[in-house]
Amino acid sequence: MANSSDDLNQSNPERKSFLEEFRSFALQGNIIDLAVGLILGTAFNAIVQSLVDDIILPIVGFWINESAFSELYINLSEVEYPSLEAAQAAGAPLVLYGQFISEILDFLILALSVFLVLKYWLKYDLKKSDAA
């Protein structure tokens, strides 16, 4: 006793097919805006990453006399290693705090940027709705 989707739709004319529901969902303005925001956010993340890695961290590294900030680490083993790469190749337990600080800076700059954009966008949106 299998019913086809046409039989179900004919028995209930208000019921939309799955494709019709999906089409109306996907073509809503909010979904399009979300997709555009996601694409722009991804591109903006690359800019923030470059700002942190190429501008901010070298300046901080200069202040603390460390050229490669992301390579700062604490070696938890008893063996001394000449570099981060050597310690990682040997499988030594490490705390990579330089990379962690880099990720925190990435997040903070991105969060601040999103906050500022939303703050001014909502302010503009409120002015626009008040004028109408």
What tags apply to this protein structure?
two-stranded antiparallel ribbon, single chain, 3% strand, 70% helix, mainly alpha
Characterization of the model:
The protein has a single domain (15-131), classed as Non-ribosomal Peptide Synthetase Peptidyl Carrier Protein, Chain A (Orthogonal Bundle), CATH 1.10.1200. Helix content is 70%, strand content 3%. It has helices at residues 5-11, 18-26, 29-63, 84-89, 97-131, and strands at 74-75, 94-95. The protein has a two-stranded antiparallel sheet with strand order 1-2.
- Largest beta sheet: what is the strand line-up? 1-2
* E-strand count: 2
CATH topology-level fold name: Non-ribosomal Peptide Synthetase Peptidyl Carrier Protein, Chain A
C-alpha Rg, in Å?
A: 26 Å
Low-confidence segments: none
Strand content: under 5%
- The CATH superfamily turns out to be Large-conductance mechanosensitive channel, MscL, domain 1
SSE string, helices as H and strands as E: HHHEHEH
Counting H and I runs of at least 4 residues, what is the number of helices? 5
The second-level CATH architecture is: Orthogonal Bundle
Determine the mean pLDDT: 80
Biggest beta sheet summary: 2 strands, antiparallel
The span between the termini is: 57 Å
Estimate percent helicity: 55-70%
- The secondary-structure class comes to mainly alpha
- Taken together, the total number of domains comes to 1
User: What does the overall shape look like?
Assistant: elongated
Classified by CATH, the class is: Mainly Alpha
